């Protein structure tokens, strides 16, 4: 049986969140292909993981027998999160843009799972795991737009997920999600709707593609 690690991080609930809506479409298609599979789900907004502390960080570079009780307790959380990543056959991450970057809760998850010599380094323990990131944003930061260069989501996640953790990374990018709510963006609603439709289509297609690849 295959395992999907599904992480949501938007502060908005349910269909109010574009990233959650798209990851839900991916997961639905995935579960239709793998009805007997396992989904490990983490909602980082509802249940945040601990932010990195000195004890949690130093424990990663201290032999288990030499850790203090504080280090052992802190590292137990990191161990669980790293094992979830390592056990996953595929990873799905919702990474909405918050003030030009990722949510702090998602950054906390990354800080916990990134450990040099295990998940990072010459032979990352989850290397090659197919990973789909839904990087939604309220505007557009494509080349030629007024805020080109303000996107610190995709370039950051590529550096961490692909180049550091060694994951096989792919993006789905629903954009202009604020158009229906912001009167100043009303003329962009058709572009938003097209982007949203593409995102749902991509989510379903990528889920089915991965399901077939892993079943082969």
UniProtKB/TrEMBL annotation:
Catalytic reactions on record: N,N-dimethyl-1,4-phenylenediamine + anthranilate + 2 NAD(+) = 2-(4-dimethylaminophenyl)diazenylbenzoate + 2 NADH + 2 H(+); 2 a quinone + NADH + H(+) = 2 a 1,4-benzosemiquinone + NAD(+)
Domain of life per record: Bacteria
Transmembrane segments: none
Protein keywords: Flavoprotein, FMN, NAD, Oxidoreductase
Co-factor binding comment: Binds 1 FMN per subunit.
Binding locations of FMN: 10, 17-19, 136-139
Residues of the Flavodoxin-like fold domain: 4-163
Cofactor: FMN
Enzyme Commission number, as recorded: 1.6.5.-, 1.7.1.17
Gene Ontology MF terms in the entry: electron transfer activity; FMN binding; oxidoreductase activity, acting on NAD(P)H as acceptor; oxidoreductase activity, acting on NAD(P)H, quinone or similar compound as acceptor
Subunit structure: Homodimer.
Similarity field: Belongs to the azoreductase type 1 family.
HAMAP family xrefs: Azoreductase_type1
Its job: Also exhibits azoreductase activity. Catalyzes the reductive cleavage of the azo bond in aromatic azo compounds to the corresponding amines. Quinone reductase that provides resistance to thiol-specific stress caused by electrophilic quinones.
Full protein name: FMN dependent NADH:quinone oxidoreductase
Gene that specifies this protein: azoR
């Amino acid at each position: 049986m295959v395992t999907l690690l599904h992480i949501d991080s938007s502060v908005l609930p349910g269909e109010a969140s574009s990233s959650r809506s798209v990851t839900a479409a991916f997961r639905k298609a995935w579960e239709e292909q793998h009805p007997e599979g396992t989904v490990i789900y983490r909602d980082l907004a509802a249940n945040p993981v601990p932010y990195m502390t000195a004890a949690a960080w130093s424990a990663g570079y201290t032999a288990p027998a030499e850790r203090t009780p504080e280090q052992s307790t802190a590292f137990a959380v990191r161990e669980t999160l790293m094992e979830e990543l390592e056990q996953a056959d595929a990873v799905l991450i919702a990474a909405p843009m918050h003030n030009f970057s990722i949510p702090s809760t998602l950054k906390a998850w990354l800080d916990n799972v990134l450990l040099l010599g295990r998940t990072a380094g010459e032979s990352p323990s989850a290397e090659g795991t197919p990973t789909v990131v839904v990087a939604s944003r309220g505007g557009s930061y494509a080349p030629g737009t007024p805020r080109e260069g303000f996107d610190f989501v995709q370039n950051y996640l590529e550096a961490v997920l692909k180049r550091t953790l060694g994951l096989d990374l792919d993006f789905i990018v629903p954009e202009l999600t604020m158009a229906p709510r912001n009167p100043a963006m009303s003329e962009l609603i058709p572009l938003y709707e097209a982007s949203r439709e593409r995102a749902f289509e991509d989510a379903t297609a990528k889920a089915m593609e991965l399901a077939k690849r892993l079943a082969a």
